[in-house]
Amino acid sequence: MEQNALNKKLADIGLSEYEIKVYVAVVKKREQTATEISKESGIPRSKAYDVLYRLIDKGLVTQSEVGKKRFTALDPFVGINNMQTAFQNKTFDTLQSFKSLPELLRNIQDTSTIKRENTFNIEVHTDLKDIKREIDLALNSARVDIVSYFKSDLFETYSEQKSILKALVSSVKVKTIYESSYLADMSNFRYAMQNKSLGQEVRKLNQVPFYMHIIDNNVAVVVTSDKTGINSQNNLKGYIVRNKDVVILFRSLFEYLWNMSESIF
User: Fold this and answer.
1) CB 223 within 8 Å of CB 211
2) Mind listing the pLDDT tens digit for each residue in 184-241?
């Protein structure tokens, strides 16, 4: 197999560029020191140990127990199987989260314009102006990163687009999964291209579960509708989630779908 094809397959299973270079170097030759691996792989020696220990955590590499530290790759069938097992376990946990989220959200629904759930620290809004105000407030509070789904047929997202553009200019890291039909609108597609040129990571899926922003892993804004199309705005529910555990759950779901999504360019 050509080296480029091998590197791509290793990247597909989740290895970073440095991890690929180091892993390939260790597979080629057993019992090497970090210095030797650094020379063979071409990565800085200052990074070698960090990368090697990550590969150990992934179950791909072992370290000698006595004497000078030397590193050896496990048999590839064993090492890759270790990664596959870990991935399957993580996927199972994520799928369980998929199953539990609808009931969690349904339990806090209310027909009033806003309801505060003290147990979960979640607000529920049903007024479109309130929802959009909360979205803008959350996006404008970003200091580290924003991850988002943009979904078609919910509401005009021009205000949110401006807030995310402002965040990018302020060096906030942004990752977005767009629903494919959302990008069918050329103005939305041009917006995505503009933001990509500013450093936003963008991908697409045929369908995303709901409209969402997660800001700094501190707050999640989730918008759902019982209907689609022109009637969707009359059936919106906006969930402002400040419960850390629930926010992390949404973030895990996003990362799972990110790995399933594809580039839009």
Assistant:
1) yes
2) 888 888 888 888 888 889 999 888 888 899 999 889 999 887 655 444 455 788 899 9
